[in-house]
Write a structure and sequence with these properties.
Blueprint (H helix, E strand, L loop, with lengths): L15 E8 L2 E8 L4 E5 L5 E7 L2 E5 L2 E5 L4 E4 L5 E5 L3 E8 L1
Antiparallel strand pairs: 1-2, 2-9, 3-8, 4-7, 4-9, 5-6, 5-8
């Protein structure tokens, strides 16, 4: 069993991107953004799961816009170009499959 703690970081700084830990087959990251903050287009060589803990975030994946909320999970394929913009303050857990 592994428990990985996600701490609220937006009180300390505006944007937080950091690695929370690793388990067999995956790295777990955390992204916390204030409303209006963006991460420019990029891609990864791995499959990625995006889980919104709170807030709303707009993803653009290969030119297609999707709004993510705590009711949704986004699965990205390797090499899919994507960018994101926080609509509200947002906390995202990223599971990068290795």
């Amino acid at each position: 069993m592994t428990i990985i703690q996600v701490q609220a970081m937006l009180e300390e700084k505006a944007k937080f991107i950091g690695k929370l830990g690793s388990i067999d087959g995956a790295d777990i990251l955390n992204i916390q953004l204030r409303a209006g903050e963006k991460i420019p287009e990029h891609h990864t060589d791995n499959e990625v799961l995006i889980i919104v803990q709170f807030g709303e975030v707009r993803f653009v994946i290969e030119g297609v816009e999707k709004l993510l909320t705590p009711d949704t999970i986004l699965a990205l394929k390797p090499l899919e170009d994507h960018s994101l913009e926080a609509i509200t303050d947002v906390c995202i857990v990223v599971i990068k499959l290795t």
